């Protein structure tokens, strides 16, 4: 049997596999920092949504349309990403996304009482930030080859670590004379500062190095790619179900008021930050399928603790454990989508953006609809269903690779 790594480089079966190393060059650090700015948008607009709803005087259902706008924005730009990358290159795409993300955030900050403007702002910020996110993930995978999953995990660790502090900034601004809108200005200010300091750094383009050489002439993806994308869908839907509905179940189960229960999301986010920081280290040492399966099982264990608990301490613990497992789901699922793309990473990233956008739009909405009919606790059974589907898809793609005589990269 012959071995293949992610970049398609063939190794002799008797050749020892060298330890995988992650080398962080200036391009890598730029993408990490862009993800940090991305976090200020994502967690800032999420934390601001309840305050925005109060300013607009709309129902929760109407306020929820902002999440739908985010999903639609991501899908639209996902469709355009391959064309944009081919026309202007990844470097220009990444900075175009940063500029558009800033414009979207400024629209929300400037017109918080005008529902059409804020819906458009959420959609623009989400869509434009998505092209920065997914082009950056493709560039990391190209640049680092077998260490790509570790780089993607580390980039997402930076994102979620920054994200932990953003809601506190929004809260502090809301209680000050400045108002919560001032906190949103952090995103465009940081984007400008990053452009001024690292705007000339070159980001790897499609076709750079061995990783980009396997573009091929094939125009259609195979079944393994779409199955890997379905796993990504399950993972993103699961993460957003926790993000948007965990506080409600926490309140229902423990009897604590909604204002206190909102802190439950912080436990989940802290678990994600820890998981992504350690996950980058583990991704260099543990086979990808084993690591991914382990992360899914950890999330299932955390969900069980949280779902069964009526004690706040155990509920917090369950959410933290869930976050620890969920932390690796998106990086590992995205890495598998890119690995199944046959070297067409930008097209694969665009498809990943579309699947993720659909997951954001469908997952939490479906859980909410189930909660209306059966209660939040019963609706949260959707989480282990998503975990089971992800495990099944993962095992099918792994067995498919084995039958094809292709070993996983170390």
TrEMBL record:
<feature type="transmembrane region" description="Helical">
    <location>
        <begin position="290"/>
        <end position="308"/>
    </location>
</feature>
<feature type="transmembrane region" description="Helical">
    <location>
        <begin position="377"/>
        <end position="396"/>
    </location>
</feature>
<dbReference type="InterPro" id="IPR020846">
    <property type="entry name" value="MFS_dom"/>
</dbReference>
<dbReference type="InterPro" id="IPR051788">
    <property type="entry name" value="MFS_Transporter"/>
</dbReference>
<keyword id="KW-0472">Membrane</keyword>
<feature type="transmembrane region" description="Helical">
    <location>
        <begin position="64"/>
        <end position="85"/>
    </location>
</feature>
<keyword id="KW-1133">Transmembrane helix</keyword>
<dbReference type="Pfam" id="PF07690">
    <property type="entry name" value="MFS_1"/>
</dbReference>
<feature type="transmembrane region" description="Helical">
    <location>
        <begin position="350"/>
        <end position="371"/>
    </location>
</feature>
<feature type="transmembrane region" description="Helical">
    <location>
        <begin position="314"/>
        <end position="338"/>
    </location>
</feature>
<dbReference type="InterPro" id="IPR011701">
    <property type="entry name" value="MFS"/>
</dbReference>
<feature type="domain" description="Major facilitator superfamily (MFS) profile">
    <location>
        <begin position="20"/>
        <end position="402"/>
    </location>
</feature>
<feature type="transmembrane region" description="Helical">
    <location>
        <begin position="178"/>
        <end position="196"/>
    </location>
</feature>
<dbReference type="InterPro" id="IPR036259">
    <property type="entry name" value="MFS_trans_sf"/>
</dbReference>
<protein>
    <submittedName>
        <fullName>MFS transporter</fullName>
    </submittedName>
</protein>
<feature type="transmembrane region" description="Helical">
    <location>
        <begin position="258"/>
        <end position="278"/>
    </location>
</feature>
<keyword id="KW-0812">Transmembrane</keyword>
<feature type="transmembrane region" description="Helical">
    <location>
        <begin position="29"/>
        <end position="52"/>
    </location>
</feature>
<keyword id="KW-0813">Transport</keyword>
<comment type="similarity">
    <text>Belongs to the major facilitator superfamily.</text>
</comment>
<feature type="transmembrane region" description="Helical">
    <location>
        <begin position="225"/>
        <end position="246"/>
    </location>
</feature>
């Amino acid at each position: 049997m012959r071995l293949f790594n992610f970049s398609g480089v063939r190794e002799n079966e008797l050749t020892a596999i060298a330890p995988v190393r992650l080398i962080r060059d200036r391009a890598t650090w730029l993408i990490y920092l862009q993800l940090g700015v991305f976090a200020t948008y994502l967690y800032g607009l999420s934390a601001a949504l309840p305050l925005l709803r109060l300013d607009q005087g709309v129902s929760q259902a109407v306020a929820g349309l902002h999440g739908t706008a985010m999903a639609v924005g991501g899908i639209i730009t996902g469709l355009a990403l391959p064309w944009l990358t081919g026309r202007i290159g990844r470097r220009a795409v990444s900075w175009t996304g940063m500029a558009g993300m800033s414009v979207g955030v400024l629209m929300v900050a400037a017109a918080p009482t005008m529902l059409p403007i804020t819906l458009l702002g959420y959609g623009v910020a989400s869509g434009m930030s998505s092209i920065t996110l997914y082009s950056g993930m493709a560039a990391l995978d190209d640049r680092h080859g077998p260490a790509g999953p570790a780089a993607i995990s580390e980039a997402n660790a930076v994102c979620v670590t920054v994200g932990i502090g953003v809601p506190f900034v929004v809260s502090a601004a809301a209680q000050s004379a400045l108002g919560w809108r001032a906190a949103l200005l952090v995103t465009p200010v940081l984007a400008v500062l990053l452009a001024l300091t690292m705007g000339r750094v070159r980001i790897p383009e499609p076709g750079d190095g061995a990783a980009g050489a396997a573009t091929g002439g094939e125009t259609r993806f195979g079944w393994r790619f779409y199955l890997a994308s379905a796993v990504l869908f399950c993972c993103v839907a699961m993460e957003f179900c926790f993000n948007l509905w965990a506080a409600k179940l926490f309140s229902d189960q423990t009897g604590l008021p909604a204002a206190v229960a909102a802190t439950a999301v912080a436990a989940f986010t802290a678990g994600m930050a820890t998981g992504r920081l350690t996950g980058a280290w583990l991704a260099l040492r543990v086979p990808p399928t084993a690591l991914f399966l382990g992360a899914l099982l950890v999330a299932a264990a955390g969900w069980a603790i949280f779902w069964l608990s009526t004690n706040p301490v155990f509920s917090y613990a369950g959410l933290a454990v869930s976050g620890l497992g969920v932390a690796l789901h998106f990086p590992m699922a995205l890495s598998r989508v890119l690995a199944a793309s046959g070297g067409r990473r930008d097209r694969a990233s665009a498809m990943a953006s579309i699947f993720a956008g659909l997951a954001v739009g469908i997952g939490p909405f479906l859980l909410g609809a189930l909660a209306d009919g059966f209660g939040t606790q019963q609706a949260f059974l959707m989480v282990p269903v998503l975990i089971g589907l992800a495990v099944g898809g993962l095992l099918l793609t792994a067995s498919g690779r084995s039958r094809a005589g292709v070993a996983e990269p170390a």
